[in-house]
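Supplementary Methods S3. Complex input for the SUD-bound model.
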Amino acid sequence: MSQAAVSVRCPGKTNLELKVGPRRSDWGDRHLLDTTYCAVGIYDTVTVALKSPGRGFSLDIRGDHLGDLGQGQADMGSNLAVQALFALAQAGGREPDASIRIDKRIPVGAGLAGGSADAAGVLLALNILWRLDWPHERLEEVAAGLGADVPFCLRGGILRGRDYGQTLEPAAPGPHLLGPSMAAGGSGHLLVGAYLDELGTADVYTAFDTMGGNPEDDNDLQRAACNLHPRSRQAIELALRAGAERAFVSGSGPSVVALLPDLATARRIRNTWAESCAVDRIIAADAPAWPELSYTVSSDPVEGGQDHAGRREEPMGVPGPGGPALGTGRTPSVAPLVNPIA
Ligand SMILES: C[C@@](CO)(OP(=O)(O)O)[C@H](O)COP(=O)(O)OP(=O)(O)OC[C@H]1O[C@@H](n2ccc(N)nc2=O)[C@H](O)[C@@H]1O
Ligand SMILES: Nc1ncnc2c1ncn2[C@@H]1O[C@H](COP(=O)(O)OP(=O)(O)O)[C@@H](O)[C@H]1O
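Predicted complex, serialized as structure tokens:
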């Protein structure tokens, strides 16, 4: 028996700018935000396949750096990928009988929206497997209920996020935000300094309420994140001293992003971060990035998303508006800096 599955390469995200306003009780006490999201080429791969009716769901997470996801007692039901399955099942009138496999590479609890990326991957995959064929705008309504970053993670690229981050519109960040080389149309090479430590997003926002942000920082959460995780401040200072065009905490942190003018600078930053032990992992990535879907038909598949010899994989484009039509092949590697919303 052949089984269809959809795999989505889901990029993580950083915030080239993050301005934080007051909390809003009508948004569950979340802060008002004005942010410039940028998807980065560190990918989780989410593979979803439908299961026979009544078989329920399964979740299989693999990777070397799973943070609190790797602990035995990690509650599968609270995983954002599973929450996305149930949210779309309810919105689309389907039964949540599906297997989800996540091959994680996005550091967990890092400010890189790994959970949001996985949730977006599940929504994109089920939109195809359940033949909903909803446009992004309709998927974004479900996504916004899962987390502020999930609507952006459906699209990728570089977009402005307002309200609590879920309202998206085109962004045209200048050299100040992208760094001159990326703004000049170069493919944005960047380094991410990641940590075994995690920072709770709620803790960082609470610390922000107390101490505010530094006016000279583009990320209002940076001061709070560095106060909670001083190694991040050290990594930023070392990267700037080594020639980074910009270096900043990614979202709620603790990971640090350094924008690079050239490969020589990349080498200098790698060396200084490694020698100083300012970070635990160094990940090179390009930006911006976009979700990449592939449709796999496996014969005699094995439950739980195991790889199988009889696989035939067809790359697809970014589904719906804002990207190539389905089946036109992978998204462009260097796409326009502004990812238009159609
Ligand atoms: C900070 C950002 C920047 O893009 O992402 P990360 O860097 O963590 O990935 C986002 O605002 C993360 O938004 P979201 O993904 O919805 O945060 P959650 O983890 O669901 O929220 C945890 C808690 O953080 C606080 N929170 C979250 C968002 C917001 N705009 N204001 C808040 O005050 C709330 O107390 C919330 O209960
Ligand atoms: N699929 C998932 N991937 C990563 N984290 C997840 C996932 N599902 C739930 N989580 C929870 O969300 C928390 C924040 O994860 P993540 O999105 O990686 O970080 P951040 O919100 O800092 O960008 C994690 O500590 C984890 O407990």
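Residues 188-287 form a domain with the Alpha-Beta Plaits fold (CATH 3.30.70.890). Confidence is low (pLDDT under 50) at residues 300-311, 318-342.
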